[in-house]
Amino acid sequence: MNLKYIFTDLRVRIIFKLQNKGVTLPFHHQHILTALINDLLDGYAKENLIYNFSGLKGQTRISRQGLHYYSSRVTLVFSCLDKQIIDYFLANIFRNKVLQVGNSLLVPEKVEEEQQPIFSNLSRYVCISPLVIVSPDNYAAKEFVMPNEMHFSDMLYESTMSKMESSGLFSAQEIASFYQFQIIPDKTYIEKLKSESKKFARIYTLYHKMLPYGEIRGYTFPFSLYAHPKVHHFIFNSGFGEVTNAGYGMLDIAHADPLRRCVAYQDFVPNAISKQAN
Q1: For the chain, what is the domain count?
Q2: What are the average pLDDT values for consecutive 10-residue runs of the chain, which has 278 residues?
Q3: At the N or C end, where does the chain have fewer CB atoms within 10 A?
Q4: Cα dist. 99→20, 95, 194 in Å?
């Protein structure tokens, strides 16, 4: 198989010191992070970049204004199919003494690598950012679909196979072999939220250059996925569903502490000078 690019899956945790401890950010601040990440990746030569990221993780309290951060450090999880992209991204982060995300002032401190899980056909996940099943340019982008409906799995299957095909990592024969695919939502969790009048699906606004341009529905709930291990590996590193480059669809393994599988990212030198990839 001829690959257009050489891909090496990688998922890192970037730890920042929060210079203005006590700052408040919007509950969902993916659009602010998207603008920053786009700037940091600007000039990278490769097209059709496939990456994913979380919101800022730290100790928070909920207030009327949003998330109140009272920890001295916050973490951003960033994953990609291409290690070169991550190295370029990290080098540009550490060129800055301070980065501003909304009202927060972040001082880059260190990088850890999440060691890859060993996947079987069935894995259980939690959403650490909302999962989007319909493309924003689709008329049904805000339509609600119960996760236990076959249509929910079908939409995610089509989205995942399309991304896997466009990545250039898999042959047509491999893509065809990934036909076994089924989402199994955590029924107890969903019923509990419904009984408490809480939502697991909300409407989110998409932004381009900090200007709103559309709305989508995102879902946040634990689920199991039955699929080929290569499919699990792909979505764990590239995101699951639509608009993953805007920070949606980041997953983690349920009932697992990601910090236990973290090691120092030995390949990254903070003072290295980034170079545009050819």
Answers
A1: 2
A2: 52 95 92 93 77 94 89 95 90 94 95 91 95 93 93 96 92 94 94 84 89 92 96 95 96 85 78 44
A3: C
A4: 12, 10, 39
How long is the chain? 278
- Asked if 113 and 132 sit in the same domain, the reply is no
Q: Based on the domain organization, do 278 and 250 belong to the same domain?
A: no
pLDDT at position 255, please?
A: 85
The distance in angstroms from the start CA to the end CA of the chain is 21
What is the reported pTM? Answer: 0.89
